[in-house]
Amino acid sequence: MDLLAHIDNYCERTDPSLWSEPLNALSNLAFLIAAAVLWRQAHGNTRQTELRCLATLIGLIGVCSGLFHFFGTVWGMILDVAGIALFILVYIQRYLRQLARCPQWACWLGVAVFVAADRAIAKLGSFGLNGSEGYLLPGVTLMAFAVWSRWHSPDATRWLGAASLVFVVSFSLRTLDMALCAHWPFGTHFAWHLLNALVLYCCARGLAGRR
Fold first, then answer.
1. Measured in Å, how far apart are the chain's first and last C-alpha atoms?
2. What is the mean pLDDT of the chain?
3. pTM for the whole structure
4. Which residues contact 140 (CB under 8 A, 6 or more apart)?
């Protein structure tokens, strides 16, 4: 694997130069803003440490994704995927523990099942979603968490419900990025970043909800 090889998967990128994706790169500031707001709001919360851990992971996503869209290389893509995956797995484990009140073994089993399902879906190949296939399972999982919370953790419902609705829009925009190039040369991937920062913020706030 050539870690320095350039990747051109987005409408905005037209060449391998560092500043070929200005909107895709700068829109990652939304993750840093979401992380900063969450960090501040965590003060005094009974789950302060947990929320600040999630805030740190959201900030990490912003940094890793920013590096990927700035450099447009394989190593940047690996960092980008790793940052997102880390947040998803940590969030699933903490949701199962804090809101679903599962025992520790069940929480880690849930994470293992998610990883296995994700790998199985990946083997099915492309569904014609412009590389968004990997976000189908996280999206469905988020919606399942929102539905479960409706009966078991009402305070979390509004946050996870909002996150689910915004995710549907952001997922659609990510999928349409290349298809709209002829009509909108900047693409729509930057909007995926902006909306996903809101999604992750809402997810973290949902975890702070009382049972």
1. 47
2. 93
3. 0.95
4. none
Q: Is the pLDDT of residue 210 over 60?
A: no
Residue 32, token pair as written in the block: 């840093």
Please tell me the chain's helix, strand, coil percentages from 3-state DSSP, rounded to the nearest 5. 70, 0, 25
**115 residue type, one letter:** V
> What pLDDT, in 10s, does the model give residues 65-79?
999 999 999 999 999
Residues in the chain: 211
Distance CA 112, CA 26 (A): 34
Q: Which amino acid is at 143?
A: M
DSSP secondary structure, 61-117, as one string: HHHHHHHHHHH-BHHHHHHHHHHHHHHHHHHHHHHHHHTS---HHHHHHHHHHHHHH
Domain coordinates in residue numbering, the chain? 22-207
Report the alpha-carbon distance of residue 207 to residue 13 in Å, rounded.
36
What integer pLDDT is reported at residue 167 of this predicted model?
98
Give the tens place of pLDDT for each residue, 108-119: 999 999 999 999
Q: Tokens 């998803």 identify what position?
A: 88
Cα–Cα dist 67/59, whole Å: 13
How far, in Å, CA of 75 to CA of 201, rounded?
26
